[in-house]
Amino acid sequence: MYITTIGFRNDNFEVEVAICDTSRTKEEADKVGKTSLFKRVFMLERVLLLDRKGAFKFISKDLTSKYQFRLYDNITQLQKENESAEKLNYKLISWNEAIWFLEKKFPNLEVFELESCYHRVYKGEFLTVNQE
Q: In 3D, which of 56, 65, 66 has the Cα closest to residue 19?
């Protein structure tokens, strides 16, 4: 099986979310990513809300195999590279670390919004860091 993910980014903060894990071929998974209507994600204390033109898909904090948070070192290079960001230096962070980072960077914001910027296809597993 193949897994399709969508990457959502704001500045140097990113979350990659698995949107489909049932594709039998790489081509099928790639098509899912290319035609995805998920353009924004909203992060709350315990849930990610993926927006598909007003219809939401919920990803709970407990579904740790469905998401991965990253902080990138070089935002200027990230803006230039965009889709090839996996080649840049980043730190994998947990959900709690992501909340802490966002609260420090945006202290008055209750809901954090990120926009989609790429899709990827994985074979087998979508690896994640410990999501304490």
A: 66
The amino acid occupying position 77 is Q
Count Cβ atoms within 10 A of the Cβ of residue 121 and give its class: 0-12 exposed, 13-18 middle, 19 or more buried: buried
- Whole-prediction pTM value? 0.84
Terminus-to-terminus CA distance in the chain, angstroms?
27
Per-residue model confidence as pLDDT tens digits over 51-61: 988 888 999 99
Which tens digits make up the pLDDT trace of 21-40?
889 999 999 999 999 999 99
Q: Is 32 exposed, middle or buried (0-12, 13-18, 19+ CB in 10 A)?
A: buried
